[in-house]
What we know:
The chain is α/β, with parallel strands linked by helices. The chain has two domains: 13-159 and 297-310, Rossmann fold (3-Layer(aba) Sandwich), CATH 3.40.50; 162-281, Rossmann fold. The protein is built from eight helices and 16 strands. The protein has helices at 22-32, 74-90, 119-130, 162-172, 188-198, 241-252, 269-277, 299-310; strands at 13-17, 36-38, 40-43, 49-52, 64-68, 95-100, 133-137, 156-159, 179-182, 201-204, 206-211, 214-218, 230-237, 258-265, 284-286, 294-296. Strands 2-1-5-6-7-8 form a six-stranded parallel beta sheet, sandwiched between helices. The chain is globular, with a radius of gyration of 21 Å. InterPro entries: Pribosyltran_N, PRTase-like, PRTase_dom, Rib-P_diPkinase. GO terms for molecular function: magnesium ion binding; ribose phosphate diphosphokinase activity. Pfam families: Pribosyltran, Pribosyltran_N. Belongs to the ribose-phosphate pyrophosphokinase family.
Amino acid sequence: MARNTGNRTDGHTVVYGFPDSADAARRLAQALEIPCHVADLHRFPDGESLVRLPEPAPNEPVERAIVYRSLDRPNDKLVELTLAASVLRRQGVADLCLVAPYMAYMRQDAIFRPGEPVSQAVVGEWLGRCFDRFVCVEPHLHRTHTLDEVFVGRPSVALSGAAPIAAHLRATGVAPGTIVVGPDEESAPLVEAVAGPLGLTGIVGRKERRGDRDVTVALPPDAPIHGRPVVIVDDVISSGETIFSCARAARMLGADTLRVYGVHALYGETVAGRFAAEGLDRPLSCDGVPHPSNVMPLNGLIADAVRSLWAY
């Protein structure tokens, strides 16, 4: 294993990123004080991918590797991660950690209709054959309680995006009477972890989803929102419908001002335009998924998780 030198290793642990995540991979490597390489990625006209990683120097074999890539728009990325892992194994890497701030295919954790797969189990087994350890941020687990249940037998850490959100609110100024609102029960841990350290009140709504873009959020009618600032927090913002409905419900209860924070921003420019139409500023997000709304870095949080997994 690499020689321990305090909070860093002596060159035998390396971070590998991909072109779409190169900046975030470099920031993580900087936080860990280790080298970073970015894979060369080529896509052939038929859609196949070619992944090329640098060969390690003969006198500095890589013993542990961190592969960094968020799995938004995951299908090509899953194949490319598998190819990258195969190269690193062939190069002699004994311990592979996948850092996927956004982990895909977690929501389908049960068979809801006949003929459907349990995608969470399929992808968990797939990646578990390629990697030894996992770090994710707000992995959108529902009935599954921990990542260890997804990547069976593989040490895994599921990080909360609450600390970066709370830190940003503290740094930019948040009124003492602000109410932190989450759209549904699944957002309750995030709401509590944001509101608690700031001494704020947290409220959770009830969401009825009839389709990907057909969502209604109801807030408790007695919620103490009237005349007070409201901060809406959620783990993922994609179609925006959950946030729009939650904001309307808060306004109906008399919210003074509204701010929106998301851990992962997956929406495009069309949805961004709708935030303005709904009278909302563009949400602020963490930088696990590259997006124009990124303002909250995750590299320190992820670096601490990697250190805990490898105990250095």
